[in-house]
Amino acid sequence: MPVYEYTALDTSGKSMNGIVDADSALAARQKLRGSGMFPVQVKEAASVSMPTGVPSGPVSVSGFFKRVKPGEVSVMTRQLSILLAAGVPLVAALDALGSQMTNQLLKKIVAQIKESVNEGNSLAFSLSQHPRLFSNIYVNMVRAGEASGSLDVVLGRLAEYGERQHALRGRFQAALAYPVFMFFIGSLVLFFLITFVVPNITQIFTEMHHTLPLPTIILIAASGLLKSFWWAMALAGVGVVIGVKQFIKTSKGHYIWDKIKLTTPVFGSINQKMALARFARTLGTLLESGVPLLSALDIVRNIVNNILIARDIDNASEEIEAGKSLAVPLGRSPWFPSIAVQMISVGEQSGELEAMLNKIADSYESDVESQIMAMTSMLEPVMILVMGLAVGFIVISILLPIFEMNQMIR
User: How far apart are CA 107 and CA 87, in angstroms?
Assistant: First the structure.
């Protein structure tokens, strides 16, 4: 359904700006008059491409690449929390948010949420109509906040959770940016040397019909293979990537891939700690927001991004239903370290499970960040060493025949 921006006068003659969801400009004017306002100007908001779950209208070329960033959702959540805490009604708060947004896609979505709430639906239901923008965690926490009457507090926690995850992801991306850039530049330089420079130099050696050293033979063969069949090698690489992705989509492939992620040296430890940090942070946030433990575990199992850990969470849910504590079944899992299980047990006994889960998340997030920073700091010298070895092999392969020719001349 299209969204219209309007300028209208209220019953006291005060000018008001906002957005309204309607089938046409005429319907928008009628809706405004029905709410006691007198429309002065009504125009359709700019159309943009919509994500899954959002009704789509005409798509403009300029809006095709427009997306809602996670940071924008966190800012919107924070602002909505502040407005509700100040006593502003929900519909008025959504209207105020929509009128000041610069992202047209988010503006349109907020307008649709406001209209849904205005029609009598809950905020959680209205948010669930846009699953790509608002995750299952987000919707369930909002639902718990509405049920407990503490929606402003829950939205504040959601904003903090989103900001923390966004900041952590940003630090990782910043740390990996330079090594990745160096890798691609180095690969391009080596490709250029082997396919364009080396053949012109080694052509002299092949025309001499002289027995060449082994490194030179290997270099000439590699150069010829890469120059003639680089496209086939590229297609084979793409095919392997697609094949692996398709295999991972199967149940057996998904299980094997998740097991590899947890057992690979160095990377396995990082993946395990990332999954545990996500588990602890999300579960703690859900419990703080009033979501029951079993419902929270059902949500968390879908966001740990690992089927092995998700199965252990399912087993824990079954044993909790049978009357056991959370720490007991998690203690039998090979993926939950004993220190984390002990902290969960202490949290359950002291009644401060949420605080203990947040401390576990803080600890593992710090460990993961330190490991990734250390690993990325080592990537640069390793790549320089690999590049040096590759270039050194090329230089030696070219110089060896020259030295042999020089000795023969003497």
Answer: 22
Q: How far apart are CA 280 and CA 384, in angstroms?
A: 38
- DSSP labels for 84-136? HHTT--HHHHHHHHHHH---HHHHHHHHHHHHHHHTT--HHHHHHT-TTTS-H
Provide the residue ranges of all domains of the chain, joining segments of one domain with +.
173-410
Report the candidate in 202, 198, 200, 176 with the shortest Cα–Cα distance to residue 189: 198
Under 8 Å between Cβ of 179 and 376? yes
At the top level of CATH, the class of 173-410 is mainly alpha
| Cα(219)–Cα(226) distance, integer angstroms | 10
pLDDT averages per 10-residue partition of the chain, 410 residues: 70 71 74 75 58 39 58 88 89 85 84 87 89 83 80 85 78 77 84 82 73 83 84 91 91 91 88 89 84 86 85 92 90 92 93 92 88 81 86 86 70
3-state SS, residue 38: strand
Task: Work out the angle between the directed axes of helices 251-263 and 214-249 (0-180°, nearest 10).
Answer: 120
CA dihedral 282, 284, 289, 291 (to 10 degrees): 80
